[in-house]
Specification:
The protein is mostly beta strands. It has 14 helices and 47 strands. The strands form eight sheets. The protein has a 22-stranded antiparallel beta barrel. Strands 11, 12, 15, 16, 17, 21, 22 and 23 form an eight-stranded antiparallel sheet that branches. Strands 1-5-6-2 form a four-stranded mixed sheet. The longest helix is centred in the first third of the chain and has 24 residues, at about 5-25. Residues about 1-5 and about 10-50 have low confidence and may be disordered.
Length: about 1000
């Protein structure tokens, strides 16, 4: 395609159509009464269904666009009570990046689900509610170290969704940013004229899972049918599920003996933590430069520690115990035995308990002059509680020094009650560093998340001289408060561990040694709050007959819109740098054990846009020729200007060629973009500390711990205001077969080839790569790179470089200071190319005696998934979250008062790249997975008593209790691909008044 021609033409089209449409439609006095007043019924504006992908009536549902539309009947077959669980049954939806099973500290948690079309990421999948944007979730989640924002689909009640539309094609030309992979539109019930109530209860046959939902909707008409009000709501509750309720594989992190024969005993499947109740330590001296110098200690000439001072504690009866500390615990030198590793799944929750309240209302009123006013209101509130194991101490995130004065220090000063006898430690004693330890007596970390969201929208639509005009103003706001209990303050811990009295914190005694009176002095909770909001205004005009060509009427849509996005995050003072930790060694901006510091931030942007769309019939009834029954084109373009990252122009062209009335081809090409999200631009400073990142330029010169990577080098990450938008190109080529008559009437088949290529994706380089680039610059005589921040050159540095240069005449190096920190910020660099096929078939038919039937199947085959990171291309097909096949098959039956339905969901096998076979080198294969949902229902339509118009439905999700296939993950499976709830049987009662 010659873009040198297409892009300027579409730019001209955008300007001309917006201007002409505005002049022709808005120059009228819309508040004046019509010249020839019609009757009340004639003046009413008919309801028009506009399917996502086009603003022009009829284009989206004509087959011209690759759109999946699921009505209420198709949605009910899944039996899901959460919108997220319902949407994952759609094959074009990839692995779920964000779910309510997440317990990570710095990510979105609670009642959340993000939709990921094509596996391209939740941030590249646009979700609309009733065709318009709504604010995203107020907390981001890091994917490959880059924060991603997304819309939480669980905030929309599944019971109030009338239909779901999925545009399986890029749509930035119509909807703007984030629509690279496609668009999901959740259409809620509106203008409802009945009262409907429902109650459902379900429980797992294998675990403690139980859930219930009550809800309903009702509609009212006033003013002779000119005013409509529909209100609805639902309340949902769910009990939690512990990992150990599901099964041994998901409970026990040591899975070596549960493996097939050719993997038997593989230590990769021992995922227990080395941070357990029996701690690992290093004894020695804290140096002024923040490093810890280890010293070996002996007792009566026999070593109690390694030569560098490393030791651990263990039960007395473990082999290798060298000296008893009392209470059944002894010292052993060196690293920890494998049997002392800790199974943190013992207290892990895989499904949190949730309560969720949803309320929604729609309103419309038709004025005497033909103008229709409309409005929407929506409210969501949820509370979620989950838990994970007690918090561990890790030397990389908490350099906790146990001073010689600590009451329980076995290498303390002479005279200390707990100093081991006959050791060669100095009389004043030695300090220790805690390398790894988990005080189980603290109890599991409890995570409570409260969320709410509301949306208000009002607008007007009218018809004026053949133009349909619509404008609306909307505002939505979301908040999330995430509080985690049973955390540990580094400052309070250091104070408690420095005591020389029995109430000091004791890390040496094994599980349960510290009483509550001690724990309460170090226990804190941490709170993380997020807020997001979105203000939108739009105005558009449409007309199906702008002018007439030989092929038929040309349709047009044009409009302008504005949105203001805001987001902010307020972390706990112990996380945002307000309360910092220092013990004279390495200072840390975070005062919470196990969590890196994250600064508070806020950001906003204003976006103005203009768009246009043309539907052009090239061949129609008046000029059709053999082989071309009809041929239509869709042209669209959008110009978007943002206050923070600049402007972008995105065109799209699509064609639909009917060879015969039953057989057609479609094709589309579009350009898209994803704006850098507000977190990526405005995020506050995040400090991470990593061990093992050597300074390649200085390590051979000075050999200091910092230069060779033995210390915990800080890296800094923060928002980058210079980020550019990610860009994309998408292509679709499809075939549709849909007979209008004969034996196959009611049958529909479609096959689409699709391809999406993204460039300029936002990523990070990584500390090791930045140090390599700095080394290359310095070796070539350059100044190094600005991301590697160094201190001033000291006299010691000058002496070391002089000595090195004298000894290495062929490798002369200019003196530079040591690395203080590395700035590993967000940059535009990476790209993806993903392509595959969508296949769908359905058949609706009726019989005289057996009833009405509807059967269908849809599948997505992922042909290729390639990622470019730096200069390297990686093949990610069948890797972790990218299965080759996803499919869904359904069948429904109605006969009189009886009805039944079934759905099969299939996910093909993938490889878990975290486990490699020791003998063959092959990755661990995660088996394919198939589940079946079904229901049987009865309608009391003919009953005249209390059961009149009542329905009862007995259903089951995951009929054959298929647990997720096994993977080498701490959870035991890949949560983005599979559900762990097992078989759930439910009963639903509903009644229509």
């Amino acid at each position: 395609m010659n873009l040198k021609v297409v892009r300027p033409a579409l730019r001209a089209l955008l300007v001309a159509s917006v201007a002409s449409s505005a002049l022709q439609a808005w120059a009228q006095e819309v508040v004046a009464a019509p010249e020839n007043p019609a009757t009340e019924d004639e003046a009413r504006i008919e309801d028009k269904i506009i399917v996502v992908g086009s603003y022009i009536e009829g284009v989206g549902d004509s087959g011209a666009l690759p759109v999946t539309v699921l009505g209420r009947d198709e949605l009910d077959v899944t039996g899901a009570l959460s919108t997220g669980e319902m949407l994952v049954n759609i094959p074009s939806v990839g692995d779920i990046e964000f779910s309510d099973g997440n317990t990570g500290t710095n990510g979105a948690r609670g009642d959340v689900t993000g939709i990921n079309l094509r596996g391209l990421g939740s941030g590249r999948s646009l979700v609309l509610v009733n065709g318009r944007r709504i604010t995203g979730h107020p907390q981001s989640e890091a994917v490959d170290d880059v924060p991603v924002t997304f819309f939480n689909v669980n905030s929309i009640p599944s019971t109030l969704i009338e239909r779901v539309e999925v545009l399986r094609d890029g749509a930035s030309a119509l909807y703007g940013s984030d629509a690279i992979a496609g668009v999901v539109n959740l259409s809620l019930f509106g203008d409802y004229d009945e009262t409907y109530v429902t109650a459902q209860y379900g429980a797992s046959t294998e675990t403690d899972l139980a859930e219930y939902s009550i809800g309903g909707r009702t509609g009212f008409e006033f003013n002779g049918g000119r005013t409509h009000l529909t209100v609805g709501g639902s309340y949902y509750g769910r009990d939690p599920v512990e990992a150990c309720d599901v099964g041994e594989w998901f409970c026990d992190l040591d899975r070596r003996e549960m493996l097939p024969e050719n993997w038997q005993g593989d230590t990769q499947f021992d995922n227990r933590s080395t941070l357990g109740p029996y701690g690992r330590f290093q004894v020695g001296v804290l140096n002024p430069d923040g490093t810890f110098g280890g010293l070996g200690v002996t007792q009566n000439g026999s070593s109690l520690t390694s030569s560098s001072g490393v030791f651990h504690v263990q039960p007395d009866d473990f082999p290798g115990s060298l000296a008893s500390l009392g209470g059944g615990v002894s010292i052993d030198d060196g690293s920890q035995d494998r049997d002392l590793r800790y199974n943190f799944n013992d207290t892990q929750r895989v499904i949190p308990d949730v309560t969720r309240l949803n309320l929604a209302a729609t309103f419309s009123h038709e004025l005497q002059n033909g103008v229709e006013l409309f409005g929407e209101a929506m409210y969501y509130d949820s509370e979620s509680t989950t838990q994970r194991a007690a918090g561990p101490f890790d030397q990389s995130l908490a350099l906790i020094v146990v001073p010689a004065a600590n009451y329980y220090n076995p290498f303390g000063a002479v005279g200390s009650v707990n100093r081991l006898p006959d050791i060669d430690a100095p009389a004043e004693g030695l300090d220790l560093v805690i390398q790894g330890y988990r005080p189980l007596e603290m109890g599991p970390r409890i995570i409570k998340v409260d969320q709410d969201l509301y949306r208000l929208l009002g607008g007007a639509r009218w018809e004026m001289r053949g133009w349909d005009v619509e404008t609306a103003l909307g505002y939505s706001e979301a908040t999330a408060t995430d509080e985690e209990f049973n955390r540990i303050s580094k400052t309070l811990l250091q104070e408690q561990i420095a005591l020389s009295t029995p109430d000091a914190f004791n890390p040496f005694g094994g599980p349960g040694v510290n009483p509550e009176s001690v724990l309460q002095n170090i226990r804190v909770s941490s709170v993380r709050k997020g807020e997001s909001s979105l203000l939108t205004w739009d105005a558009k005009v449409t007309r199906p007959d702008l002018f007439t060509l030989p092929g038929g009427d040309v349709g047009i849509a044009a409009g302008v819109d504005f949105r203001r996005e805001e987001i902010s995050e307020d972390s706990d003072p112990r996380l945002d740098g307000t309360i910092q930790f220092t013990n004279g060694a390495i200072p840390d901006e975070s005062d919470l054990v196990g969590v890196s510091a994250t600064r508070d931030f806020s950001g906003d942007r204003d976006v103005w846009a203009a768009f246009t769309e043309l539907s052009i019939p090239i061949v129609g009834e008046a000029n059709r020729v053999p082989g071309i029954y009809s041929l239509d084109l869709q042209l669209a373009a959008r110009f978007e200007d943002s206050s923070d990252f600049g402007d972008t122009f995105n065109p799209k062209i699509a064609g639909h060629w009917f060879i015969t009335p039953a057989l057609s081809l479609r094709a589309a090409y579009g350009e898209g973009f994803r704006a850098p999200n507000l977190v990526q631009i405005n995020q506050g400073t995040i400090t991470r500390r990593n061990q093992g990142d050597a300074d390649l330029y200085r390590e051979d010169v000075t050999a200091t711990p910092n230069d060779v990577g033995d210390t915990y080098r800080p890296s800094i990450r923060n928002g980058n205001p210079d980020l550019e938008a990610e860009e994309s190109e998408s292509r679709v080529l499809g075939l549709i077969f849909e007979p209008e008559s004969g034996a196959l009437e009611g049958f529909r088949f479609s096959l689409d080839y699709w391809q999406v290529e993204t460039t300029n994706a936002i990523t990070t380089l990584g500390v090791d790569r930045l140090l390599e680039e700095d080394f290359a610059s310095l070796i070539a005589g350059g100044p190094g790179i600005s991301n590697v921040v160094r201190g001033a050159v000291t006299q010691e540095d000058l002496d070391a470089f002089a000595a090195y240069n004298a000894a290495n005449p062929a490798d002369q190096r200019a003196a530079v200071g040591e690395v203080l920190y590395v700035v590993d910020g967000y940059i535009n660099l990476d790209g993806r190319e993903v392509k595959g096929y969508d296949i769908a078939a359905s058949y609706d038919f009726s019989t005289r005696s057996a009833g009405d039937f509807s059967v269908g199947a849809s599948a997505t085959k992922l042909e290729s998934y390639k990622e470019t990171r730096g200069d390297t291309v990686y093949d990610e097909l069948r890797r972790n979250g990218n299965p080759e096949w996803r499919a869904s098959v359904f069948a429904r039956w109605d006969l009189g008062p009886w009805r039944a339905g079934a759905q099969l969901r299939y996910v093909s096998d993938v490889y878990d790249t975290s486990a490699t076979n020791d003998d063959t080198g092959e990755y661990w294969e995660v088996d394919d997975w198939m589940t079946v949902n079904g229901y049987v229902g009865y309608s009391f339509e003919q009953d005249t008593g209390i059961m009149s118009n009542a329905n009862v439905r007995l259903g089951v999700r995951n009929l054959f209790d298929e647990l997720p296939p096994k993977a080498d993950e701490s959870s035991g499976y890949l949560p983005g691909l599979y559900s762990i709830e097992g078989r759930v049987v439910y009963l639903e009662l509903s009644k229509t008044f």
